[in-house]
């Protein structure tokens, strides 16, 4: 490998390090076996996380690379609170390789009541629904995986949404 210089070189080194770390923590062949056992769905994240002793975020990234159906995106959702306003917003997006719809970080999902309720009530669901969120317009198969986290003594909602067009 030649010398890698500048920002692009750093990005390439970081990408290679991420791949090596991912393969050490979550070996692809075993991950695919376990994913087949548990199913290609968000509900499999928790048992996969437990099996590999890895974070849900690491499982989500590996899932994106190993899933058979690549025409999907995994949206990470988190509470945000500011100036008395409480809402759920997209905090990260993991597009699978055939996903081509832009989903910006910070996009509020509060207007989509059914989605927000899934997180506030800790009630996962999987169904086809009409969405009207920024560039996400139309019918999608939506699967939610809500969870909670505590920070500074407050309980917050977070989780994942798996979107299929």
Calculate the mean pLDDT score and round it: 87
Class from secondary-structure proportions: alpha+beta
Strand order of the biggest β-sheet: 2-1-5-4-3
The radius of gyration over CA amounts to 17 Å
Order of helices and strands: HHHHEEHEEE
Structure annotation, total helices: 5
Residue share in helices? 25-40%
How would you describe this protein?
There is one protein chain. The chain is an alpha+beta fold. The chain contains 5 helices and 5 strands; from the N terminus they run ααααββαβββ. It has a 5-stranded antiparallel sheet with strand order 2-1-5-4-3. Helix 3 crosses helix 4. The chain is globular and about 40 Å long.
List the main descriptive attributes of the protein structure presented here.
165 residues, alpha+beta, five-stranded antiparallel sheet, 5 helices, 35% helix
Concise description?
The chain is of the alpha+beta class. The protein is built from five helices and five strands; from the N terminus they run ααααββαβββ. Helix content is 35%, strand content 35%.
Topology readout:
Layout (H helix, E strand, L loop, with lengths): L5 H20 L2 H11 L6 H8 L3 H11 L5 E11 L2 E11 L17 H8 L5 E8 L2 E16 L2 E11 L1
Antiparallel strand pairs: 1-2, 1-5, 3-4, 4-5
């Amino acid at each position: 490998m030649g010398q890698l210089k500048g920002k692009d070189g750093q990005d390439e080194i970081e990408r290679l390090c991420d791949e090596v770390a991912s393969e050490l923590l979550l070996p692809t062949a075993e991950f695919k076996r376990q994913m087949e056992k548990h199913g290609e769905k968000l509900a499999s994240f928790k048992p996969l996380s437990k099996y590999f002793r890895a974070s849900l975020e690491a499982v989500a990234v590996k899932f994106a690379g190993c899933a058979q159906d690549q025409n999907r995106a995994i949206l990470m959702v988190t509470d945000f609170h500011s100036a008395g306003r409480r809402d759920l917003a997209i905090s990260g997006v993991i597009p699978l390789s055939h996903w081509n719809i832009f989903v910006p970080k910070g996009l509020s999902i509060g207007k989509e009541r059914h989605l927000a309720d899934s997180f506030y009530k800790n009630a996962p669901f999987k169904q086809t629904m009409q969405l009207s969120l920024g560039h996400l317009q139309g019918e999608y198969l939506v699967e939610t995986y809500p969870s909670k986290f505590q920070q500074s003594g407050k309980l917050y909602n977070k989780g994942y949404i798996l979107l299929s067009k």
